[in-house]
Amino acid sequence: MSAPRDQHFLVDQRAVEKIAGFVDVAGRRVLEIGPGEGVLTRALLDRGANVIAVEIDPALVEDLEATFADEIEEGRLEIIEGDAQKVDLPPFDIVVANLPYSVSSKITFRLLEIGFEVAVLMYQKEFAQRMIAPPGTSNVGRLSVMVQTYASVKPLLELSPNAFHPKPQVWSWVVRLLPHEPPHPIADRKVYADAVRVLFSYRRKTVRKGLRSGKDTFPPEVIERAIADLPDDLLQRRPEDLTLEEFALIANRLAGCRG
């Protein structure tokens, strides 16, 4: 069977066993996004997980329902046909998934918003490296800031294109995400997300100019009040040089000036 969209099926069985074993899933409700042909699904079920598998491709859903008919009947597997970016998700504890590369960012943000105990997720290597990029480095961006604000990230496994069929053009990383409270107080999480997005949309501009370019997101008077209340040395820097604490400071000023 050919892979739909940008999905690459994991065929390295040793990698499958490692991924399924990174977290104890016995008796837990495990969300799997993009189960494909079900090799990771099988490994999770074999370890005692109760799996919720979300698959967008109708043909794959049909095959999965046939392959796992017994597990579905026993209530150990629920298959949901739909887009994991949008579909309603039942409660889950843990996430284990080989995410389609093109939607990695949106699904990761959605998972962080919903909440989970721990996630073991596969990403394109360069994407995962951006997740862990520290401030002041060329790789840092919106993804780095948002993920590190709400979770710790630990690389677990690197996979070559040979581990997949069809072979992708890139290497992959499996990482563990462990949610935590933001390291600095955030007054309004939506304002924080909007502020980070605006600033990195204009990452070559200073913070002052970047904020002023975000008038479609924040009213100009709010932006100007926030700028007047922020340290000048901060306003002269670029987003990639800011710490998480400084992003929180900017967002909290914006949130306060809205009122």
If you had to describe this structure to a student in words, what would you say it looks like?
It is an enzyme of class 2 (transferase). It is found in: Cytoplasm. The protein is of the alpha/beta class. It folds into two domains: 9-179, Rossmann fold, CATH 3.40.50; 189-258, rRNA adenine dimethylase, C-terminal domain (Helicase, Ruva Protein, domain 3), CATH 1.10.8. The protein has twelve helices and nine strands. The protein has helices at 13-21, 39-46, 58-67, 69-73, 104-114, 125-131, 142-150, 189-201, 207-212, 220-228, 232-235, 244-258, and strands at 9-10, 29-33, 50-55, 77-81, 94-98, 118-124, 151-159, 164-165, 172-179. The strands form two sheets. The protein has a seven-stranded mixed sheet with strand order 4-3-2-5-6-9-7. Strands 1-8 form a two-stranded antiparallel sheet. The chain is elongated, with a radius of gyration of 20 Å. The N and C termini lie far apart (56 Å). The mean pLDDT is 95.
What are the main properties of this structure?
Helicase, Ruva Protein, domain 3, elongated, 2 domains, rRNA (adenine-N6,N6-)-dimethyltransferase activity, RNA-binding, Rossmann fold, alpha/beta, S-adenosyl-L-methionine, 259 residues, RNA binding, 12 helices, two-stranded antiparallel sheet
